[in-house]
Amino acid sequence: MENSNNGMEICSRICDLTDELRDWWLQCQSRSQIKELMTLTLSQSRLLRAVWRLTRNSRQGIMLRDLAQQLGLSSSAVSVMVENLVQRGYLDRENASDDRRKVWIRISRKGQDYQKATAEFFRLKLEKFFQECEPEKLDCFEEILNKFNLYLINAKGSEE
Predict the structure, then answer these.
(1) Which residue among 5, 24, 33, 59 has its CA within the 20 to 30 Å range from the CA of 118?
(2) Would you say 64 and 78 are in contact if contact means Cβ atoms under 8 Å apart?
(3) What digits encode the pLDDT tens for the residues 44-64?
(4) Using alpha carbons only, how large is the chain's radius of gyration in Å?
(5) 48 or 21, which is more confident?
């Protein structure tokens, strides 16, 4: 039972940490940026981050159906979110020249600026924190994060 309580405490701390980082980041934004960012749903933010991550090394982008598969959502649900993000300027969408049923999704300049600014903010904050940590504890922290990430990746789709 001790392990279960410890696990709940760790889970609670991870959620609290995530909320604190998000709040800290929002406090550093202008009023108009906050207004814009707060209208992004969690699903839209997740989709935007996925497009960013999956297309960093691709000039062409990602096919809509592949993006839907990556997110574990239907193509129609992803299509609606993509349309909203295209209209708001975060994504670009283009029909494939060889087949109009195929749709390529790319992150727009606005979406790139948003993702870069977010990543840079968190990188700088974590860098400052890591400078205050002992190297061997950082190594242990990194090892645990990697194991947890691998666990999450491997557990996707399996029921536990």
Answers:
(1) 59
(2) yes
(3) 888 998 999 888 887 789 999
(4) 19
(5) 48
How many angstroms separate the CA atoms of 65 and 104, rounded?
A: 9
Per the DSSP assignment, residues forming a β-bridge with 107 are: 91
Q: Which amino acid is at 108?
A: S
Q: Please give the DSSP secondary-structure letter assigned to residue 101.
A: T
Please report where in the chains the tokens 């940026």 appear, as a residue.
33
Strand-pair category, 62-63 with 91-95: unpaired
The angle formed by the CA atoms of residues 109, 37 and 39, to the nearest 5 degrees, is: 115
pLDDT at residue 94 in the model? 87
Question: Which contacts (CB < 8 Å, 24+ apart) does range 45-49 have?
Answer: 46/71, 47/71, 47/78, 47/81, 47/82, 47/85, 48/85, 48/90, 48/91, 48/107, 48/111, 48/114, 48/115, 49/115
The Cβ of residue 6 has, within 10 Å, a number of other Cβ atoms equal to 10
Q: At what angle do helices 42-55 and 75-87 cross, to 10 degrees?
A: 90
